């Protein structure tokens, strides 16, 4: 099986230092960068699938030129090669542009499954996997909690998280699957993997390398941020320490004051 | 061109979802402010009842009978109807933040190239188009954004507006789905309900959460009990999900659900950044934790320092006593 995983470098949410720059765009220099959490679950699932069925996993990112550092972390987990789509004209790209560019770049690859995180921690729109499926005319299997390809039959089944539990869904491959944490925790790269990742190839593509109508002038994106403000400050809270019955009364009083009971 | 705002209603057990009432209300308010029009769309194997409910909020609702969605995923079929309505003058699509709507939003972006403003907490009309307010970067900033063109997709979080029917109900225009979608379809082989999964965390007024301090799956008995007495829904942190104590569907935070309840009650929740992202905009936050320095204290309105296995049952008893009195 050939599996291509979209891995987006994002500011590390655990570092807590993400911020917007004066241009109201994400200040990517303000935070350490990691592979987006849901994309790591996708990558782990991909690696387990090729361990079971044979084949290879490649990764693709659309990001700034220095994203190769973060991509090496994904290669160290076991992906064999990477593709970085990068172009100065794509800085601050909107969602439709991201979808167009990634659809054009993935169309140059051969794969049975295209995996991506359900959403990214910096953008949170959760539209890119579905958008690419629509552009490429491939079936979409979303919110995966389990992925079971049948390489001989040329189909893939996915356990899709629903509001009620899950749906068991199936489509022919190649297909696009969006991935969740329910797929299972990503592995830590081994020392061997880290060493091997250093020499793995990352192909760099610019807009000129892609066959697509996608050179919107900077600022011509479909959406724009007008203003950004800090969230309203929370009033300082109260801290109490008391025996259980008294603590329980204090909580109940608080809830009654707020008309919550 | 005059704005024409389409609301795509969702159907749960044959009825309109609660969130659809909110998105419909928002669409009507925006259309009023814009001097445009609002209309609804329901795509389902049997759309009529939900479409009639949606028409309480909107002047017109298209009820599209799509028998195929009984055995195929919904979004490609909904997309096909939206593509038809887009050629018919629809300028904006308003969706609730749900799993199906997220897929549909992505398909619209891919097929029509429209911009997307996701996870709106508030939407206004500023004269030329919608202005969408959303919390970003894990709640570190509130941004207001707009579309640069005349079209776009907006997804709306629960609670952005109070659902309010229109003065007079609108008309329902029933028709059959117009053939197969342009997108390849995905078959649904089975739909499996899991115990406790029915209650929607995102729409809950009260959320009671068990964190690592709850100690094990049996600790969720206490969480369940407090949720019941408070009329709330049970949530969890990534730590308690990763430990296998409760289903991932209950997880609140970065890679789980984003909630905005009137009351968040956390038991044994430390308040890691990954969790705070999903709950920090709750109206009131109460936490019980044995560690006085737990980071959740930075955002809690009330932090009770002590043993949750003493305080939790005492609180349940106190609340039951007050309710009885």
Structure at a glance:
By secondary structure, chain A is of the alpha/beta class.
Q: What's the β-strand tally of chain B?
A: 18
Q: What is the assembly state of the chains in this entry?
A: heterodimer
Total count of helical runs of at least 4 residues of chain B: 8
Structural class of chain A: alpha/beta
Distance between the termini of chain A: 56 Å
| Poorly predicted spans of chain B | none
Q: How are the strands of the largest sheet of chain A arranged? A: 9-8-7-10-6-1-4-5-11
- What is the average per-residue confidence, as pLDDT of chain B, rounded to a whole number? 94
Terminal CA distance of chain B: 60 Å
* Biggest β-sheet strands, sense, barrel of chain B: 7 strands, parallel
Approximately how much beta-strand content do the residues of chain B carry?
Answer: 25-35%
Please indicate the count of domains of chain B.
2
Q: Please count the beta strands of chain A (DSSP E, at least 2 residues each).
A: 13
Instruction: Report the CATH architecture of the largest domain in chain B.
Output: 3-Layer(aba) Sandwich
Radius of gyration of chain A: 22 Å
Helix content of chain B: 25-40%
Name the overall outline of chain B: elongated
Report low-confidence residues of chain A grouped into runs of 5 or more.
Answer: none
Provide the structure class of chain B: alpha/beta
Strand content of chain A: 25-35%
Question: Could you please describe the fold and organization of this structure?
Answer:
The complex is a heterodimer of chains A (261) and B (325). Chain A is α/β, with parallel strands linked by helices and 261 residues long. Chain A is built from six helices and 13 strands. Chain A has helices at 37-53, 68-77, 95-106, 128-136, 191-198, 244-257, and strands at 2-6, 9-11, 33-35, 56-62, 81-85, 113-117, 140-150, 155-161, 165-172, 175-179, 202-205, 223-229, 238-240. In chain A, the strands form two sheets. In chain A, strands 9-8-7-10-6-1-4-5-11 form a nine-stranded mixed sheet, sandwiched between helices. A two-stranded antiparallel sheet of chain A has the order 2-3. In chain A, strand 4, helix 2 (68-77) and strand 5 (81-85) form a beta-alpha-beta unit. The model of chain A has no long low-confidence stretch (mean pLDDT 93). In chain B, strand 16 (263-267), helix 7 and strand 17 (284-289) form a beta-alpha-beta unit. Chain B starts with a strand and ends with a helix. Chain B is 27% helix and 29% strand. At the A-B interface, helix 1, helix 3, helix 4, strand 7 and strand 8 of A face helix 3, helix 4, strand 7, strand 9 and strand 10 of B.
């Amino acid at each position: 099986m050939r599996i291509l995983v979209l891995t987006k470098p994002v500011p590390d949410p655990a570092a807590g230092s993400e911020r917007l720059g004066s241009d109201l765009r994400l200040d990517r220099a303000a935070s350490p960068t990691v592979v987006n959490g849901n994309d790591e679950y996708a990558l782990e699932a991909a690696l387990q699938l090729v361990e079971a069925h044979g084949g290879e996993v490649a990764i693709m990112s659309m990001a700034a030129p220095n994203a190769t550092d973060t991509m090496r972390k994904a290669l160290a987990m076991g992906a064999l090669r990477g593709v970085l789509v990068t172009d100065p004209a794509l800085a601050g790209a909107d969602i439709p542009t991201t979808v167009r560019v990634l659809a054009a770049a993935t169309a140059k690859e051969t794969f049975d499954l295209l995996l991506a995180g359900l959403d990214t921690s910096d953008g949170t729109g959760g539209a890119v996997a579905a958008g690419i499926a629509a552009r490429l005319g491939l079936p979409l299997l979303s919110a995966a909690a389990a992925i079971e390809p049948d390489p001989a039959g040329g189909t893939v089944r996915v356990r899709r998280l629903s509001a009620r539990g899950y749906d068991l869904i199936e489509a022919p491959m190649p297909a696009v699957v969006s991935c969740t944490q329910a797929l299972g925790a990503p592995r830590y790269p081994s020392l061997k993997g880290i060493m091997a990742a250093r020499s793995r190839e990352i192909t760099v593509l610019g807009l000129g390398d892609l066959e697509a109508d996608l050179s919107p002038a900077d600022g011509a994106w479909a959406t724009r941020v007008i203003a950004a403000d800090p969230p309203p400050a929370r009033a300082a809270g109260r801290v109490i320490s008391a025996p259980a019955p008294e603590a329980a009364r204090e909580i109940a009083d608080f809830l009654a004051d707020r008309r919550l009971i | 061109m005059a704005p024409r705002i389409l609301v795509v209603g969702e159907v749960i057990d044959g009825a309109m979802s609660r969130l659809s009432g909110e998105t419909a209300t928002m669409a009507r308010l925006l259309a009023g402010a814009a001097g445009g029009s609002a209309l609804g769309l329901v795509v389902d194997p049997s759309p009529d009842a939900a479409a009639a409910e949606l028409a309480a909020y909107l002047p017109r609702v298209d009820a599209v009978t799509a028998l195929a969605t009984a055995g195929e995923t919904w979004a490609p079929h909904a997309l096909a109807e939206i593509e038809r309505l887009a050629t018919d003058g629809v300028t904006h699509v308003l969706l609730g933040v749900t799993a199906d709507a997220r897929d549909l939003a992505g398909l619209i972006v891919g097929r029509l190239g429209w911009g997307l403003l996701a996870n709106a907490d508030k939407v206004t009309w500023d004269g030329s188009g919608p202005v969408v307010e959303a919390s970003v970067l894990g709640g570190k900033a509130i941004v207001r954004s707009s579309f640069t063109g005349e079209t776009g997709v907006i997804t709306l979080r629960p609670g952005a507006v109070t659902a309010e029917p229109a003065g007079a109900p609108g008309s329902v225009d029933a028709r059959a789905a117009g053939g197969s979608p342009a997108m390849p379809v995905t078959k649904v082989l089975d739909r499996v309900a899991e115990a406790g999964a029915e209650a929607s965390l995102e729409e809950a007024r009260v959320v009671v959460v068990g964190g690592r301090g709850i100690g094990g799956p049996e600790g969720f008995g206490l969480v369940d009990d407090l949720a019941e007495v408070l009329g709330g829904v049970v949530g969890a942190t990534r730590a308690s999900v990763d430990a296998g104590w409760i289903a991932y569907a209950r997880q609140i935070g970065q890679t789980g659900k984003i909630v905005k309840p009137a009351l968040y009650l956390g038991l044994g929740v430390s308040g890691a950044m990954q969790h705070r992202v999903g709950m920090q905009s709750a109206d009131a936050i109460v936490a019980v934790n044995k560690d006085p320095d737990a980071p959740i204290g930075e955002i809690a309105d009330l932090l009770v320092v002590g043993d949750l296995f003493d305080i939790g049952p005492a609180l349940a008893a106190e609340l039951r006593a007050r309710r009885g009195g």
